[in-house]
């Protein structure tokens, strides 16, 4: 059995970059999907509204773990080979699209109706109304819950270890299997996640309080 | 697309899937019930306790909310034996879920406690309500109305989250799926069906919770 030394701990900590990279990929992918879902959900076309509603419910009503596992197996059915990295990035992006879509729809819809009406009165079309009037206001409201979801996403990347992607959690398992110091190893990994997530949580909470004060 | 679907082999194992789904429900219900005890105690400690206790409870909440559940369950299952506490996979799953949902529950319960203004209780007394009536009508019902939406969605999150317990081979629905696909290699079919079962359970609980809210908890229209 190997002993748990500095090299082993550094191996685990270095794997945190894969956690960060996967989180970033999923956040970018989820942002693109999320904007589409939010626009469909708050838009005027009934079929798209229903599609976005179903999409959100489907991802809110099934475990993230199952979403990742299916992201791993479904491309194979169509003859597309995916590695664990691709499957994790795909699954987490689709997952994030649903949750960000719902958050951003809410942010768009709390912008008062009068803003739509007055910008329409100024002769702006839908896209200009969105871009110049509604989205800048929705953006401020969306920041705290979006950052809050980013924390969920970072934590969610740990499930990519189950489909075999070597990020922080998987690296910890690998080292634990070789050295067997579970308490120390998973403790260190837990604290690493905490160091990534806690500043974001604190920021999200502070922004939320600021926004609540501003709207009073 | 040349894939030959074989769902027959999945449905042949329907008894395992049913048993797994029941275990998932049992695990979620038990974790929620015990977790709420933790949450109420934590909320009381945070609103009325000494400073050191409040600080400790805050540390617990932040630690749990900012680490993945998978790591929490690994610490409980693999870490605790190092200090002499050895748990079966199912026991470790229950404990980890309780610890997890307790942390989220404290903030929900605290919001419920804080939603009751003291002026309301005094107003109830002034109207001649008996202490029990004040508690039932002025304190309990509005507090439940206030926390009901977060509490019920927390339960569904907990149920979905319990699938992670399969990582330590707990005997719940995802664990059953792992067993079945290890035997017949129909991975996609098994996980597809199991995802459908989770979704059906979510829809069922969304429906039940909405029905209960409409039937028992609807606020009278403001006059």
Automatic annotation (TrEMBL), chain A:
Q: Where does this protein chiefly localize?
A: membrane
The ABC transmembrane type-1 domain covers which part of the protein? 16-204
Indicate the transmembrane segments per the record: 20-40, 52-78, 178-200
Q: Give GO BP annotations, semicolon-separated.
A: amino acid transport
Q: Name one GO molecular function term.
A: transmembrane transporter activity
Annotated family: Belongs to the binding-protein-dependent transport system permease family. HisMQ subfamily.
UniProt protein name: Amino acid ABC transporter permease
Q: Which organism is it from?
A: Muricoccus nepalensis
Taxonomy-wise, where does this protein's organism fall, top ranks first?
Bacteria, Pseudomonadati, Pseudomonadota, Alphaproteobacteria, Acetobacterales
Automatic annotation (TrEMBL), chain B:
UniProt xrefs under InterPro entries: AA_ABC_transptr_permease_3TM, ArtM/GltK/GlnP/TcyL/YhdX-like, MetI-like, MetI-like_sf
Residue ranges annotated as transmembrane are: 25-45, 66-85, 146-170, 190-212
The membrane topology term of the UniProt record is: Multi-pass membrane protein
Q: Which Gene3D superfamilies match?
A: MetI-like
All residue ranges annotated as the ABC transmembrane type-1 domain in the record: 21-209
Keyword list (alphabetical) reads: Cell membrane, Membrane, Transmembrane, Transmembrane helix, Transport
This protein's GO CC annotations: ATP-binding cassette (ABC) transporter complex
Location within or outside the cell: Cell inner membrane; Cell membrane
Q: What CDD domains does its record include?
A: TM_PBP2
- Which GO BP terms apply? amino acid transport
Alphabetized PANTHER family for the sequence: ABC TRANSPORTER PERMEASE PROTEIN (PTHR30614:SF35), MEMBRANE COMPONENT OF AMINO ACID ABC TRANSPORTER (PTHR30614)
The name this protein carries in UniProt is Amino acid ABC transporter permease
């Amino acid at each position: 059995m190997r002993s748990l030394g500095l090299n082993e701990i550094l191996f685990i900590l270095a794997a945190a970059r894969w956690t960060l990279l996967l989180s970033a990929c999923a956040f970018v992918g989820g942002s693109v999907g999320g904007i589409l879902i939010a626009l469909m959900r708050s838009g005027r076309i009934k079929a798209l509204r229903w599609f976005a509603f179903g999409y959100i419910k489907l991802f809110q009503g099934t475990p993230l773990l199952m979403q990742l596992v299916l992201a791993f197996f479904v491309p194979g059915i169509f003859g597309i080979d995916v590695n664990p990295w691709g499957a994790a990035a795909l699954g987490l992006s689709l997952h994030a699209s649903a949750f960000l879509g719902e958050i951003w729809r809410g942010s768009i819809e709390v912008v008062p109706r009068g803003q739509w009406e007055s910008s329409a009165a100024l002769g702006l079309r839908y896209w200009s109304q969105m871009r110049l009037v509604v989205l800048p206001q929705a953006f401020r409201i969306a920041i705290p819950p979006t950052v809050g979801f980013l924390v969920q996403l970072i934590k969610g990347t740990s499930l990519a270890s189950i489909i075999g992607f070597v990020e922080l959690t998987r690296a910890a398992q690998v080292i634990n299997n070789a050295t067997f110091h579970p308490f120390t190893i998973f403790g260190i990994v837990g604290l690493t996640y905490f160091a990534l997530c806690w500043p974001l949580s604190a920021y999200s909470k502070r922004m939320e309080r600021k926004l609540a004060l501003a709207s009073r | 697309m040349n894939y030959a679907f074989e769902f027959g082999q999945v449905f042949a194992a329907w008894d395992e899937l049913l048993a797994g789904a029941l275990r998932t429900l049992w695990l979620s219900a038990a974790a929620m019930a015990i977790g709420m005890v933790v949450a109420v105690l934590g909320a009381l400690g945070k609103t009325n306790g000494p400073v050191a206790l409040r600080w400790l409870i805050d540390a617990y909440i932040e630690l749990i909310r900012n680490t993945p559940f998978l790591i929490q369950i690994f610490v409980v299952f693999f870490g605790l034996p190092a200090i002499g506490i050895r748990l079966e996979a199912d026991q470790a799953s229950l404990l980890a879920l309780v610890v997890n949902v307790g942390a989220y529950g404290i903030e929900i319960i605290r919001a419920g406690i804080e939603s009751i203004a003291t002026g309301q209780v005094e107003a109830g007394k002034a109207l001649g309500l008996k202490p029990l009536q004040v508690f039932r009508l002025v304190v309990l019902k509005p507090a439940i109305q206030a926390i009901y939406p977060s509490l019920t969605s927390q339960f569904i999150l907990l149920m979905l989250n319990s699938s992670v317990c399969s990582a330590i081979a707990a005997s719940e629905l995802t664990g059953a799926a792992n067993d079945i696909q290890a035997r017949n290699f129909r991975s996609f079919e098994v996980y597809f069906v199991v995802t459908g079962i989770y979704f059906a359970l979510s829809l069922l609980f969304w429906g039940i919770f909405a029905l209960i809210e409409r039937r028992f908890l609807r606020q009278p229209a403001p006059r």
